[in-house]
Design goal:
The chain is 53% helix and 9% strand. With 423 residues, the protein is α/β, with parallel strands linked by helices. It binds iron/sulfur cluster (2 copies). One iron/sulfur cluster binds next to loops.
Length: 423
Amino acid sequence: MGDYRNLWESLGMDLEKHDVLCQALPPLFDEIYLSQVDRPQGMNYFNFVIAEIHGLRVEELHTARIAGRKVFGTFCVFVPTELITACDGIAVGLCGGSQFWVPDGEKVLPRNLCPLIKASVGAKISGTCPYFQSCDLLVGETTCDGKKKAWEILNEYTPTYVMDLPQMKREKDLSNWRDEVSRFCEQVEALTEQKITSDNLRQAIHLANEKRRVLSRLYGARKADPVPISGKDALLISQIAFYDDPERFITQTDALCEELEKRIDQGTGVFPKSTPRILISGTPQAIPNWKLHHIIENSGAVIVCEETCTGTRYFENMVDEGGETVDEQMRHLADRYMGVNCACFTPNTGRVDDIVRLAKEYHADGVVHYNLPFCHNYSIEYHQVERALKQEGIPVIKVETDYGEEDSEQIRTRIEAFIEILR
Ligand code: SF4
Ligand code: SF4
């Protein structure tokens, strides 16, 4: 990474503490990522993005802000980022995936809370995340209890706008959500001093759909046997999708997909043919949370799909690009987001159907249900997921773990036993 100390200082960061974080990431990435064999050439771009994780993109955001553009930090796949793009703003995903930030989060939050929330808040109050420091507005949502109360605390450090997400998907909830999307639109227009028009919204919807299309293409390649790309690499790409420049991301991922499709034609894979195939389902895996993928792929199985918000929930279902007026387009936009099946909804049978469908589409031999501790929504929903998969004869195991390494060996033992069953 280049020298960005002046930039970080101008963002009000704690440089000394940030140095500790910067020293921890490269060896972790080397061990988990660069140690893999037969990686596609196209991964070089994503390696570069990680090498520059607190550098180049942060500098781009800084330059954009000097030019008058606004940066919005988001935490959930329900935030309609198309509205931000349409008003020439920039959206960056901020969910924290590092144990490094948890102790700072625990200074203001209870310990018995989801690590994703603690790490996200900790990243802000520790002053060690340049993305948080670059945001003009944070956008939270009323999904789980932990998040909606955490926004009140985060708002003491940086302006935080909260979208009211319904808890159910009845017609009246959909109508409320459409209103909420319009209310958010007004907020974006006010901050950016731009107006949503049918033209700029059409372009923004198209761009977001292109990102969905290319992620869908990437995931499509993972249906092959042998698999042309590891689950770890696919997860990394999904995580980067949340903060990279969208156009560059689309170009680079398309180039990678071409390489993967050639590999499929040649029968080349990163794991031998007939390696046990795993579908991950459950809570999001924010960067740099690679723990479970690393354990599974070092235990003799390959991950072929993630039914998570850093997986299919992020890119499945396109926004209908057909609307002529802003009102029609806004309606299409709101409706697409209501198609996301998060466990914060009741009932949420759509997610159970999705898991069974994806397990079949990706020819998964088994499902690992991943749960961050204290995420009650996903933990409780496991009961229905397990029942549905058992009815289909698909083995499933639940793994609950945080960002720490203390339980890694215990998880490895359970995963190895599970893979033996799949064999
Ligand atoms: S799991 Fe639910 S609350 Fe969390 S990011 Fe996904 S949609 Fe949002
Ligand atoms: S993983 Fe669960 S508890 Fe954590 S932020 Fe998402 S919905 Fe909330």
